[in-house]
Amino acid sequence: MNTFDKVKKVHLIGIGGIGVSTLAQIFNDQGKKVSGSDLEDSDHITQMKKAGIKIKIGHKATNLPQGTNLVVHSYAIEEDNPELLKAKKQKVKTLTYPEAVGELTKNYRTIAITGTHGKSTATSMLVLLAIKAGLDPTVILGTKMKELNNKNYRVGKSNLLIVEACEFRDAYLNYKMETLAVLNVDSDHLDYFKTQENYVKSFGKACKKVKKAGLVLIDADDEFSKGIDKQAKAKVVKITSNKKLKGKKNHFYLKNHLLKINDKSLKINPKVPGAFNIRNAAFVAAIGEHLGISNRKIETGIGAFKGCWRRMELKKIKSKGFDFYDDYAHLPLEIDVTLQAIKETFPKKKLLAVFQPHQFVRVKNYLEEFGSAFSAADEVLIPDILRNRDTKEQMELIQTQELIDEIKKHKKKVHHSTGVKNTAKWIKKNGKKYGVIVAMGSGDIKKLYKYI
């Protein structure tokens, strides 16, 4: 029995977040009485209200319903939040979102997918494969899928849980995992981890958390992934495209669209562009093989994957004359490989990259990398840096113009705008010069397509 078994009434603070909203909807589907609050309205909140979840905009102590058994809150919620203070005063059990997911994992065979890049895509791909293979999983996602009725969760009847596992603040260390796939280890969240070394160590700790009878998958060709499996108690499988490692024990060899797993050869052909998505699919195929899914079902399941929300997602817009894509890429490598994939798909079309920088500390830490990340774009448009968790002191570390100047070292045409609505006005005025426009970032840039 875990924390949730006796809970009948749960309140979620920061309920509009992509993570917290999954739990809210899972609780609701399980028959619990669910309420929540957030600072602003969103598509997620509209979706939850339609499902009968009562949600208040703004944070007040009166938002906490009488008789609440459990309060779950996102990391973004401060300790002085009035709803959280009231819950603690009334001695209601409180959990952070990762702690709550950790409790949920105790009831399942949990497959977790993590890494700096590609988590949402690879997890979505695995979800589709598992559903098509009849495994009926419960799902926690950081994105929405059309196959889940444009939702970011699913409640299945089996004991299988597939979860997108975030590394921020060591969130995944709360999880009980049977299988863990670490897609890659680059660098992120240095506002919390402080150093690259600490960031890499976190993934090593996650590998160690997997139970002995389980499975850890890593990329043998990825620089910072090397060695993170040293303390793993579970079996370790490594994906490689290095011929020198081909044939070594537990090294699965990937070449182009073919993955060699011991004596099996699997065709890897998702309907999404980019070599990085072939890599993601290789991990998914290896997990499918571990789950006992047949070659044919693995191949057809991966082949059926057409993408997910905000991952090179083609949007319908009012403006004519160009294709408009929306993408979550917010780190330099993600920007680079996404633009490369789009340019490879549309080599003759003029490409404009619209990137909204998110978090002053992040831009400062990766300034040079951001500067060189737009090589595949013909032109770049940069809205102002969006604040996220930054203190006033951190906001003084860097200004938008410094990022623009850095990109100009590599690109001649770099334009500047302010907020999302002004960025939309710029595109309405200048968009006809381009064949493809892609909006990128993890902030409110996701709303851009609505205004053009």
Describe the structure in your own words.
- The protein has 452 residues and is an alpha/beta fold.
- It folds into three domains: 9-96, NAD(P)-binding Rossmann-like Domain (Rossmann fold, 3-Layer(aba) Sandwich), CATH 3.40.50.720; 108-303, Mur-like, catalytic domain (UDP-N-acetylmuramoyl-L-alanine:D-glutamate ligase, 3-Layer(aba) Sandwich), CATH 3.40.1190; 313-451, Alpha-Beta Complex (Protein-Tyrosine Phosphatase, Chain A).
- The chain has 15 helices and 21 strands.
- It has helices at 20-29, 43-50, 82-89, 97-105, 119-132, 190-193, 196-209, 275-290, 295-303, 332-345, 360-365, 367-371, 392-395, 400-407, 420-430, and strands at residues 9-13, 33-38, 54-57, 70-73, 93-96, 109-114, 138-145, 151-154, 160-164, 179-182, 215-219, 235-240, 251-255, 258-261, 264-267, 313-315, 323-327, 351-355, 379-382, 414-416, 436-440.
- It has a ten-stranded mixed sheet, sandwiched between helices. The chain has a six-stranded mixed sheet with strand order 16-17-21-18-19-20, with helices on one face.
Apparent shape: globular
Give the number of domains: 3
Helix share of residues? 25-40%
If strands are numbered along the chain, what order do they take across the biggest sheet?
A: 8-7-9-6-10-11-12-13-14-15
Low-confidence stretches: none
Spell out the key features of this protein.
452 residues; alpha/beta; Rossmann fold; UDP-N-acetylmuramoyl-L-alanine:D-glutamate ligase; Protein-Tyrosine Phosphatase, Chain A; ten-stranded mixed β-sheet; 15 helices; 21 strands
